[in-house]
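User: Predict the structure for this protein chain, please.
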Amino acid sequence: MRNSMWFMTWVASVLAGAAGLGGCKKDTDIPVGVNLPLSDSLSPYGLATLDGIKLRVKQINDAGGINGRRIRLEIQDNQGKDTESRAVFKMLADMKDVVAVLGPITSTCALAAKLDAGQTQTPMITPTATNDMVTANSKYAFRACFLDSFQGREVALYAREKGLSKAAVMVDSGSDYSQGVSASFAKAFEAAGGKIVAQESYQGKDQDFGMQLVRIKNAGAETIFVPAYPPNVQDIIRQAKVVGFTGRLCGSDGWDNNVVIEHSGENIEGCFFMAAYWPGEQRKVVQDFVRDMLAQTGHMPGSFEALGFDAMLLLGEAMKKGLTRQEIADALRGLKDIEGVTGTISITPGGDAVKGAVILQVVKKDGKCATELAKKVPIRK
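Assistant: Here is the predicted structure, written as structure tokens:
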């Protein structure tokens, strides 16, 4: 985790300097709202997403902007809370010059904020909110990521390909994301001939998962599917070893962050999870992105950096067609075959991204845990 003093200074500078990147505020700038968790437990994901957004904005501005106008980010912290996400969205939408809002990044927060996107007729592009209902019945909600029904199914199918026949599921009962992915995984796993032998629930604030894990172990599970974010992911992985569970755990895209890989202990070796991209892919757009992110942040970028970049990429493409909120919303629905870091992306009339994905496995290299490509998942509508 990043140094706390650095973090506090960083957030303060971000919020104070929300006038944007590379220069003073100008009347000709194009303001884009950013609605992310920059404090509290989800801050590693908000900061990672913001890093990706900022890189793409820098590229656009360095290339001359949009029709000669620079993009300026209006950055606000939603603390990872649904009520704050709505308040932030309303505040950004009330800035009449803001053309669109990037974020929130979690499903619960995005489901809340999409109500305000519709009421204010302001395009909302979530980089990473995967719950299937995030874009449903909304003309102004869009996403750059895949859906829960897609990722849950694909992880389940991969588990069956590996010969795993008995699985358990750990569900955060307060998370729309966790519930959605878990349901998709369980349905696909059993449809592929496997059996869900246990399903245990917890609250996101919990720290002790011993009782649930003992019941899972006694049920004979060979793997545990954990669609969650830190700190729950690391705690569950570490505690599974403590209770004597010898199988490998598997997870969703919420695992794809350095915090999970570096703070889950040795028990994470052999685990696998869904991700938006693999930094080792040799496509030029991926390698350029990895190079530039390493130069900007000093660490290997994960899915959240990549999806922040791609969300801004999609918005930038739409902005070329017009700069009113309605023109941007209409243009987003017409985007086809945009080459992003996370693959070739098209946006459906309903606002969803059609794209592939990857499954990554954790291995030990030079004494440290790292990820390697386990499977490329093709585009499946």
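The first helix runs from residue 4 to 16.
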